[in-house]
Amino acid sequence: MGYLLYFILIILLPIWAQMKVRGAYKKYSRVANTSGVTGAEVARRILDENGLYNVQVEAVGGFLSDHYDPRSKTVRLSQENYYGHSVAGAAVAAHEVGHAIQDAQGYAFLRFRHALVPVANFGSNLSWIFIMIGIFAQLSGMLLLGILFMAAAVLFQVVTLPVEFNASSRAMDQLVASGIIRNEEERRTRKVLNAAALTYVAAAAVAVLELVRLVLIYTGMANNED
């Protein structure tokens, strides 16, 4: 029964988080910001106000495909947010610019996350091979190796949390300071940013829970070998 509840939790938690972010985004993508600016204009204004004239702003295909590329120093916004005038679009654009500001200022958690990327990719790709071999062949050493690889990927998920929360905090500060959002729009913008943050919280929670479960399996297996 415990395992059933566990698997229901790790399946439903990400789905619930995605529903929250899509619901908030859909609702406030229909609400125009009072400044009448597009997401592209929001990004460009905040970048310029922070002296980041070298960072480009581009439109990209896909739904909520918005991101900041630190390699090319480019804020990429989905077309709906790039061209749209919504509260949601302004929030998303400001959030991605928040990452650009982090990059420019050498924000410690962002630098740490960048350093973890190759290790996390390697770990996530190989961990389950060793884990499955370890579990089915009852080889605790192989399982432990898989857990160590997986721990690197989980650490990446956990470090992502302060990076994303900080970017959202910067986004709110910049939007208010620049006068792009006012009064009631602050509450609406915060709802969009908080909903988006839930997806990262859910992903990190699921990753940590899975890691704990595997550690418990390893502990039981090692005890049996003794």
UniProtKB/TrEMBL annotation:
Which terms are listed as keywords in the entry? Membrane, Transmembrane, Transmembrane helix
Keyword Membrane on this protein? yes
Pfam families, per this entry? Zn_peptidase_2
Parts of the chain that traverse the membrane: 6-25, 115-137, 143-163, 192-218
The entry's protein name is: Zinc metallopeptidase
Which organism does this record belong to?
Bacillus songklensis
Q: What is the lineage of its organism?
A: Bacteria, Bacillati, Bacillota, Bacilli, Bacillales
